[in-house]
Amino acid sequence: MPSPVPIWQDYCPNMKDELFKGFLEKHEFASNYDKAMTRTIWNRTMLDRYPDILKRARERAFKEANSTSIANIKGHGPKAMKVDVWNDLVDHWLDSKWKNKSVAGQKNRAAMPAHKLHTAGSISFGEHKRRKV
Fold it and tell me: Are 34 and 116 in contact (CB under 8 A)?
């Protein structure tokens, strides 16, 4: 992560391309169509999962700092992330706008717990694309 990016939409397109190239190094696809479809699904998955990735990083930082205060996790970011990038993300999370949005999201998720259940099982890339469109 070259700069503090709190949401996937703000990620630099060149960096998204580099990350996807890394994904392609680990996976093979039969056709260019499959590869293009995979890129679409990969982007949508990252849009959905990027907040979870950052949340897990915060949770690890809380444990490492032995604190429950977000202000105390500066300097306790993932080893693969530059300290100044992590600290800038922490500053973003300390902002009142982010806190208000986070609290609103928690209330919304608590109001409809049945909507969080995953009961579909394993589904194909094609099915993912059909559902996301």
Answer: no
Residue (of 83, 92, 91, 85) closest to 64 by Cα position: 83
What letter would DSSP give residue 66? T
Token code pair at residue 59 = 């949770």
Q: Which residues contact 33 (CB under 8 A, 6 or more apart)?
A: none
Tell me the C-alpha distance between 8 and 65, whole Å: 26
The tally of CA atoms less than 13 A away on the side-chain side of residue 111 is 6
> pTM of the prediction?
0.68
Which residues have CB under 8 Å from 111's CB, separation 6+? none
Do residues 93 and 113 touch, judged by C-beta distance below 8 A? no
Question: Which residues are CB-neighbours of 47 under 8 A, at least 6 positions away?
Answer: 8, 9
Q: How many CB atoms lie within 10 A of CB 20?
A: 16
How does pLDDT run across 11-53, given as a tens digit for each residue?
889 989 998 999 999 998 899 999 999 999 999 999 999 989 9
Choose among 102, 25, 117: nearest CA to 58.
102
Helix (H) or strand (E) holding 126: helix 125-132
